[in-house]
């Protein structure tokens, strides 16, 4: 029986999280990634590497069972450097997503094409620009270029367009214990392993549970390390959002030029136009609303799990407008609720998303989103269910989310369960009392992530009634970390 690294646990518990510096946060917002070194000893990383190297010969694919299989890996996420980095971007109350993966790069396995991650595919969801989701990629061994590291496309996190001609490829090379914190939507790939040894990388996802609270932001400064892109207005908007504020209105250039750029030939220009128009306040509203409704036809329900980036022009102006309207704050609320109620299918989908992202959205937006959860279009229901969960819980909102746990579409149930985790993080146990029984039923959902988020919500509610639903389920879900093909009992 292997020994748990209790000395590492004790060391982690004695030390405070190390937040990112302002400069590191600004760099992350622009570049989409930040490479950092864990403070844990080399022996810890060697042990993790050795255990998974041995297990890979007997267990096979680890899937989401990485942590129960080798629970000491969880101490990485108690490391003050890792906790501080995650907390700086996601707030103090973030959630480790139940999906995680071990990425192996054996000798001669070939290199990947650049891609974005997606569980649900590339067509139904509106991807966040703001850092609601980040991933940690951890390397337990020295990873030089010839060992085939992961590489990222710097500054590609906002792009649907393929990034090869627009961004610079950056290999993530470093010593054992390095990890790279990435925006969930950054383009990345596995590089070619030119050595005769195995390379491992562990991928974990994390999500923010609550919108940022207002705090002093200080004066915005361009990061020293940044890609050569026209996206300062976007980076600036996200900087102020992380401090619970809308960016101060500082219009630049000519409004008519930015309005034209919403339909530009390059996606970077369309994205920039959305955020630049937001800085004009009410004067920027008409072109953004026009763009929000500019796409015709139905939303695409074909599931695309390998996006080649060639269809980026479809809905590009609509997406840019949605992000701009979210960044605009209170000024856009009336127009967004109107578009959600009366717009075409693509406008409704993106209006729901923007209302969720808009810091100023209040009860009127909640009512519009609750109504949109009954929309005939699955895209709109997904966006509305997620958006509703980004707001402090109210009785009607909780009732709508609880009802959505019984939706026939698993994507909606996933968002409903995650939204109820967020509601439990923002609200009180008393407010959530009526969600306990439906969450208990959702523990048996056919989708593993609905089930996992139901368990997360019940844990956070934390009452005797919640534990009465949760603990019996946990008993049957228990995994024995000491059992494998070599040691069956």
Can you tell me about this structure?
Helix content is 42%, strand content 10%. The chain has 19 helices and 8 strands. The protein has helices at residues 6-14, 22-31, 42-55, 66-69, 80-90, 232-241, 255-261, 267-278, 285-292, 316-328, 333-342, 345-357, 363-372, 378-388, 395-404, 410-426, 436-442, 448-461, 464-477, and strands at 33-37, 95-105, 133-138, 150-153, 169-171, 178-183, 188-190, 199-207. Strands 1-6-3-8-2 form a 5-stranded antiparallel beta sheet. α9 packs across α10 (316-328).
Rounded to an integer, what's the Rg over CA atoms?
22 Å
Strand order of the largest sheet: 1-6-3-8-2
Question: What is the share of helical residues?
Answer: 40-55%
CATH-assigned fold name of the domain at 6-207: Jelly Rolls
Descriptive labels:
single chain; alpha+beta; Jelly Rolls; 3-stranded antiparallel beta sheet; 19 helices; 10% strand
